[in-house]
Amino acid sequence: MxxxxxxxxxxxxxxxxxxxxTGRNAMNMQETYTAYLIExxxxxxxxxxxxxxxxxxxxxxAFEWLRNYLLVYYPHVVVPPxxxxxxxxxxxxxxxxNMDPDFVERRRIGLENFLLRLASHPILCRDxxxxxxxxxxxxxxxxxxxxxxQLKADSRLKALNATFRVKNPDKRFIELKHYxxxxxxxxxxxxxxxxxVADRLYGVYxxxxxxxxVFSEWSAIEKEMGDGLQSAGHHMDVYASSIDDILExxxxxxxxxxxxxxxxxxLRAVCRKHELMQYDLEMAAQDxxxxxxxxxxxxxxxxxxxxxxxxxxxxxxxxxxxxxxxIKMLEEQIKEGEQQLKSKNLEGREFVKNAWADIERFKEQxxxxxxxxxxSYAVMQISMCKKGIQVWxxxxxxxxxx
Amino acid sequence: xxxxxxxALPSTxxxxxxxxxxxxxxxxxxxxxxxxxxxxxxLLTARSFGDKDLILPNGGTPAGTASPASSSxxxxxxxxxxxxxxxTRDLFVTVDDPKKHVCTMETYITYRITTKSTRVEFDLxxxxxxxxxxxxxWLRNKLEESQPTHLIPPxxxxxxxxxxxxxxxxxFVETRRKALDxxxxxxxxxxxxxxxxxxxxxxxxxxxNAHKKQGMALLTRVGESVKHVAGGYKLRxxxxxxxxxGEYLDTFALKLGTIDRIxxxxxxxxxxxxxxxxxxxxxxxxxxxxxxxxxxxxxxxSACIGSCSAALEELTDDTTEDFLPVLRExxxxxxxxxxxxxxxxxxxxxxxAKLEAVALRKEERxxxxxxxxxxxxxxxxxNADLKADMERWxxxxxxxxxxxxxxxxxxNIQYYEKCLMAWESIIPLLQEKQEDK
Lengths: 402, 437
Fold this sequence. Notes:
The complex is a heterodimer of chains A (402) and B (437).
Chain A: E1 11-24, E2 30-43, E3 50-59, H1 60-73, H2 101-119, H3 128-135, H4 140-146, H5 149-152, H6 155-158, H7 171-219, H8 226-299, H9 307-315, H10 320-400
Antiparallel strand pairs in A: 1-2, 2-3
Chain B: H1 46-49, H2 68-82, E1 91-102, E2 107-117, E3 126-132, H3 133-146, H4 170-189, H5 197-204, H6 208-214, H7 221-227, H8 240-288, H9 295-361, H10 370-431
Antiparallel strand pairs in B: 1-2, 2-3
Keywords (chain A): Protein transport, Transport
Family (chain A): Belongs to the sorting nexin family.
InterPro entries (chain A): AH/BAR_dom_sf (IPR027267), PX_dom (IPR001683), PX_dom_sf (IPR036871), PX_SNX4 (IPR034902), SNX4 (IPR034783), SNX4_BAR (IPR037430)
C-alpha cells in the first residue's frame, strides 16, 4: 500500500492480541511489559473481503509516543485519549493489578478503540507518523524523534495549573474549559459512586447464596416440604452467581464513561492552547506598544517623563549618533514586531477557526457515543431485572409445591 | 340472653363447665341437652359443634369414667372437622384498630378485638373489646397453666430487642398487631383451646382486670395434676416418636435461626446498596445540567435510578415487617413446644417411677392401684393431646411457610418488575433525536 492512495477509511484496524514480555530497558534493568499485536487489513471494494496487509507488535509506550506527537502537531484537534494505565475506580472484586488478564483485555480493547478513533478522524487519519505506526515495524521511534516534536512541544501546556492573565480570550473557549473541568469532575464522581454501587450489589446477590445452603439442610428434616425447599435453594444459588456476569458487562459501560473522562482532558488542552496563543499575542502586542512608545520618546528628545529618560539622566547624556542608532534599532524591531503580530494574529484566528470546527465535530461524537452508552446501560439493567424476575418466579413455584 | 339455639336448654347464660354432664359419661337424663349423648358420627358436624353435648371440658376426662382413648379419638375426629374450610367455622376473631393511650403513669397501645360467634359459650353473637399486650400475655400464661398438655401459640416478643426501634411507630405497631391477630386466630382454630374459659373471658369481658383479680382457677383435672407433678422424677428414655419430635424441633429452630440471620444480613446489604444508589442517581442530574442534547437522557437515567431506589426501600421494609417477625414467631413456638415435651417427660417419669415402686413392693394385687392408674391416664392423655397438636402444628407450619416464602419471592418479583418498568420507559427517551440546545 503506497502512501498516495492511502485512505484509512477502507482499512480495518484491530489490536488482536496482548502478550506479556520481559526485556531490558534503557538502564539495562529487567522489566515486564505488555506488547500488543496490531493488524491492519485492507478491504477490497468488490467483494468486501479483507486482506491482511500489516501486522506488528507495539508496546504501550509506543502508543504514548504516537499520542504525544499528535498533540504537538495538531494542537487544534481534540486528540482521542489512551485508556488508563492503572485500573482506577475499581470495585473490590476487580483486581487493581495491571497484569490481571481482565485488565489487560480491557486495555487491549481500549487501545484498539484509540486507533479506530484516529482512523476515523478526518484530519488525524492522514498523518504519516500514524500510518507508519501501523506499518513500519522497525525504527518507528527514531522516525518520530526525527520530527523533533519533543522540541516543538510547549512545556507550558503541561503546566496545567499555571494561570496566564489573558485579557481578551475567545469567550467560547473559556466556557468550554469550564465545561471540560465540570465534565471531568462529574464523570469522576459518577465512576466512583458506580464502583461503590457495584460493590454493594455484589454483596446483596452473594448473601442470597446462603439461602441455598440452609434450605438444603432444612429440607433434610422435612417430609412434604423437602423437595420444594431443596429446589428453591438451587434457584437461590443461581441468583447469587448471576451477579458476576452482570457486573462484568457493566465494566464496559464504565469504560465508555472513562473514555470521555479522558477526552475532557484533551478538550481542555485545546482551550489551553488557545489561551497560550492569545497570551503570546497579547504579550507581543504589549511589547510592540512599549517599543513604539520608547521610539516616540527618543524621537521627541526625552522631554516626556519616562524610565528611559530618567536612566539617561542618571548615566549622563548620550550623543545624537547614539540616539539615532537606538531609534533605528527600535524601528527595525517594531517592523519585525508588527510582522510577528500580524502572523500571530493570523495564526490565532486560524487556530480558533480550526479548533472550533473540530470541537463541533467532537460534540456531535460525544452526544452520539454517550447516548449509545446510556442506552446500552439501560439495556443491561433491563436484562438484570428480567433475570431477577425469572429466578424469583422459579423459586416461588418451588415454594408453592412445599 | 337474646336468641339462643333452637333446642331447649336447661339454662341461659354462661355456665360453669363443671355443671355440664360429660358427653362421654353414661346416658344422661338431661334429654334437654339435645338428643344423643353419645357422639355418633352424624352429630359430629360443625353445627353440632355448638351443641353442649359435644363440648369437651378442657381436654380432660373425669376420673374413673370413660377411658382416655375415646377422648383422644374424639379429638382426632374434631380435628378432622376443623380442617374443613371456613364455611363450617363458628368463631371468628380479629385484632385491629390500634390506639395510643397517654396516661400520667404510662403510655401504651390498645387493640380492638372483635369476636363473632354462634357458639353457646358466648352470650352475644358479637363482641368488641379493647386489649393491650399485657392482657395477651396474661391470656397466654393462663392457657399454659390450664392446658399444659397442649401447644400454646407464641406471642410476639415482649421487649423490643434492637435499641433504636420506636415502639409507637406505625411499622412496629402494625407488625405487632399482625402477630397478635395470628396468635388469637391460632387459638380460635384449636378444637380444645378455643373453648378455654380464659379465652372466652379475654374476648368478652368489659373489664378484664376485674377478672384477673378474681384469679379464675378453672383448671382441668389433668391440668391440675400436671401442674403438681414434682420434677423429681427422672425419665429413663423418651419414646421414639417424641424423641424424633424433640430432635426435629432442635434442628428446625437452628435452621430458622440461620435463615433469620441471613435475612437480616440481606436487609443490611440492601440498605447499604440503597445508600449508594441515593448518591448515584443525583450525579446524573448534576451532569445533565452541564449538557445540551444529553440533558434529557441524563435526567431520565437519574429519575430511573430514583424509582429503583424507592422500590428497593419498599422491599427492605416488607422484609423487616412481614418476613422476619414470622420467622421469629416460629422460633419462639418451637421453644415453647420443647418445654411442653419436657413436661410430658415428667409425667411419664412419674408414672414409670410409681409403677416401678408397685412392682418392687411385690404385693400380689389383682389390679394396679388407683393412683398409678391416674398417672397412666395423665400420661396417655398428654401423649394423645401432644401428638394431635403436633400434627396440627406440622400442617399449619407447612401452610405458614409456604405462604411466607411465596410472599418473599413475590416481593422480590414486584421489586424487579418496578425497576424493569422504569428502565423500559426511558429507552424511547434515550433513543429520541433532539435539537441541539
